[in-house]
User: Fold this.
Amino acid sequence: MAETTFSHAPTSLRPDGMRGFVADWSSDQRAFKNVSWGKAMMWIFLLSDTFVFGCFLLAYMTARMSTRVPWPNPSEVFALHLFGRDIPLILIAIMTFVLISSSGTMAMAVNFGYRRDRKRTAILMLLTAALGATFVGMQAFEWSKLIAEGVRPWENPWGAAQFGSSFFMITGFHGTHVTIGVIFLLIVARKVWRGDYDTGARGFFTSRRGSYENVEIMGLYWHFVDLVWVFIFAFFYLW
Amino acid sequence: MAEATAHGISSLHGSDAPAAAHAETHQEHPIKLYLVVWVWLFILSACSYMVDYLHLEGALRWSLILIFMILKAGLIVAVFMHMAWERLALVYAILVPPIAILVFVWIMTVESDYTLWTRLTFFGAGP
Assistant:
């Protein structure tokens, strides 16, 4: 079972810009010339996930715009009592910094992967997974705090009932994505550590030979999780 | 495209595929670039947190939130996800379809304005 081969000219000979766009899409072969099937499929999956989260945020927007009841002030709802005073949104701010840091370590892991630095790649991926797990842990803390204060999907003590359902649905779905990402990070980090991508060992799922590009594809997913949080942070917590 | 290097492909793809058959390029960029973007993401996040901390209100608050959000999203997609160095065929395939979401936003804005109007008309102002 040989891998698919392509007989194109090198990418450097292809036209760039708009001419390149038209030429690639009309070439009747494959549209994404210098991108492997794995990376293209991850991008298309992320596009579909964009629509999922887009619809969630839209549902939240519609609920918030159409209710007669005042919306609870997220700045006060998510405040923590620290150092003798209430600091607004502080837990969410820390979670944001944790997730951005994990995105940074992931980008470095991809870079060291292409330099075939097995150890640094694996360590940075494990660090990314640890930061991701920290994020999920803080989210669990936030959820239990809000549930203890009486927030439910159908009611809450401060205002519009839709606040609870929007909150649990959006952050719950995002937290699930982070959790799945942590699991995949651990799997890929183990493969890197074992040297699977140096020897070209076949994967357990697709039986295809892996390469360090798998780290970059994993990174695409992880950065997307961070990207979604940027939008949730802006629209749900700050708005 | 200049920064994306294509070397090392033959060794990466194992021995059962002819090296010249693959035209895929790798995204390899200097580490410093990632660190600079990382620092900027921290700064922008701190700025968007300050919007809330300083209790900015109204149009100023909303426009600042949107500006910082778009800058952060752009940095992540362009540099961390390497979209800046991809060919336009992929860039357009991924970045154009989400425009449909913006159309959906407009539709749902009209719809929720109408819903709010009916609620205020038939149930009166909120409790």
